[in-house]
């Protein structure tokens, strides 16, 4: 895309091509992007508050066993509805925003360990191209305290919506709320596990391929994750091997330890119990559900390159997390579930994101740190987006970022 610079490094595999690495920026870009602290007024690192990196829920999933659900468990488990739940509809709110596409709101039935019967909500959008509709579907998996609005932010959709850009490129999207978020089932937090979330997404993938969602069999599935939605991809690949390519944004195995502060020395928790937040009061009573504290969404952004209207919408649309989202020990590379990935994989991070390795963040440093956590067959590539924070696709340079992602997908999936 315009404004993008490519660099190359030799592949460690004999006879294989070089790894292309890309840095995308909102202005002039080069091959070095110095990791800078936020210059926003009142935002400075502090040791007096909890570690921001931990608050961003860096999940390093351990080996996840596939449990069996008995008929008794499935029958006995009553579905817990989301506070967002509405009656089933053949169309979604996205339909009015993406007029050149067919969009449907879908509740996908799943059955997972401990939770039993549940549903995953998603919005399936297919481009209108006569009678021809792509057999490729991008499965969009948002991060912790986000729902499907992350990939379809209702602020200048032509600029910030990844769904809109994917449709323009001719790809279908299935934009989901993970189990225990949004319009999907909210099980008792004591029963929900990361394993259950991964199982549910696997069942969604199976149904996409079988034609059980939208009455079209998709032959190729590309997982596009953000943050927790990226780390869940590692666990899904370890168990199922049913995805054709991965785009992993806002996540790595190495994290810079940075801490947010109000700038006045106050210790304000990054997350609070959702039942104590005005948005969820009266609809979420389970004390195990969490959400971000008021004003904390801005720490997902590099504010000099962020639209205040987007941050405000992010705050308004924030969602839930549970303790299961933020547990799991860091494993050495040879034991990491990400080594199970055997298909093309693209890592995308902002240079201001704590997950953008350490010190000076460049595409080369990302690959240097991440290469050992993936198999050679993953054909790993990296994009570093300049002047962008954790929510990398919601900054002012989002069109370039999304164009670079879609360009990569076009080269590896057809």
From TrEMBL:
InterPro entries: AB_hydrolase_1, AB_hydrolase_fold, AB_hydrolase_sf. GO terms for cellular component: membrane. One of its GO terms (molecular function) is hydrolase activity. Residues 84-94 have a biased composition (Polar residues). Keywords: Hydrolase. Residues 139-395 form the AB hydrolase-1 domain. It comes from the Bacteria. Residues 74-99 are annotated as: Disordered. PANTHER family: AB HYDROLASE SUPERFAMILY PROTEIN YCLE (PTHR43798:SF31), MONOACYLGLYCEROL LIPASE (PTHR43798). This is Pimeloyl-ACP methyl ester carboxylesterase. It comes from Saccharothrix tamanrassetensis.
């Amino acid at each position: 895309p315009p404004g993008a610079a490519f660099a190359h490094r030799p592949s460690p595999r004999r006879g294989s091509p070089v790894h292309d690495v890309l840095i995308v920026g909102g202005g002039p870009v080069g091959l070095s992007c110095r990791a800078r602290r936020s210059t926003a007024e009142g935002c400075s690192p502090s040791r007096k508050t909890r570690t921001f990196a931990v608050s961003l829920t860096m999940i390093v999933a351990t080996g996840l066993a596939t449990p069996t659900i008995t008929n008794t468990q499935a029958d006995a488990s009553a579905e817990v509805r989301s506070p967002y739940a509405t009656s089933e509809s053949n169309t979604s709110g996205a339909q009015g925003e993406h007029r050149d596409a067919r969009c449907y709101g879908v509740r996908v039935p799943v059955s997972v360990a401990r939770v039993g019967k549940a549903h995953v909500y998603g919005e399936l959008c297919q481009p209108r191209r006569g009678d021809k509709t792509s057999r490729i579907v991008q499965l969009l998996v948002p991060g912790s305290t986000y729902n499907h609005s992350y990939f379809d932010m209702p602020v200048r959709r032509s600029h910030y919506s990844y769904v809109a850009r994917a449709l323009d490129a001719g790809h279908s999207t299935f934009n989901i709320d993970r189990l225990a978020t949004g319009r999907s089932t909210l099980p008792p937090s004591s029963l929900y596990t990361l394993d259950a979330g991964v199982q549910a997404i696997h069942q969604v993938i199976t149904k996409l391929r079988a034609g059980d969602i939208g009455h079209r069999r998709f032959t190729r599935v590309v997982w596009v994750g953000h943050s927790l939605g990226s780390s869940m991809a590692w666990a899904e690949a370890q168990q199922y091997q049913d995805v054709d390519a991965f785009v992993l944004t806002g996540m790595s195995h190495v994290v810079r330890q940075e801490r947010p502060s109000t700038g006045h020395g106050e210790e304000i928790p990054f997350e609070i119990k959702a039942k104590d937040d005005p948005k969820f009061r009266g609809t979420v009573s389970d004390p195990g559900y969490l959400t971000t504290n008021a004003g904390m969404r801005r720490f997902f952004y590099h504010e000099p390159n962020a639209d205040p209207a987007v941050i405000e919408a992010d705050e308004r649309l924030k969602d839930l997390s549970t303790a299961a989202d933020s547990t799991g020990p860091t494993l050495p590379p040879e034991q990491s579930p990400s080594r199970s990935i055997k298909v093309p994989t693209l890592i995308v991070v902002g240079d201001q994101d704590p997950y953008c390795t350490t010190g000076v963040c460049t595409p080369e440093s990302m690959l240097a740190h991440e290469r050992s956590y993936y198999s050679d067959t993953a054909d790993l590539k990296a994009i570093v987006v300049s002047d962008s924070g954790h929510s990398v696709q919601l900054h002012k340079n989002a069109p370039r970022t999304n164009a670079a992602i879609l360009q990569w997908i076009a080269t590896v999936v057809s």
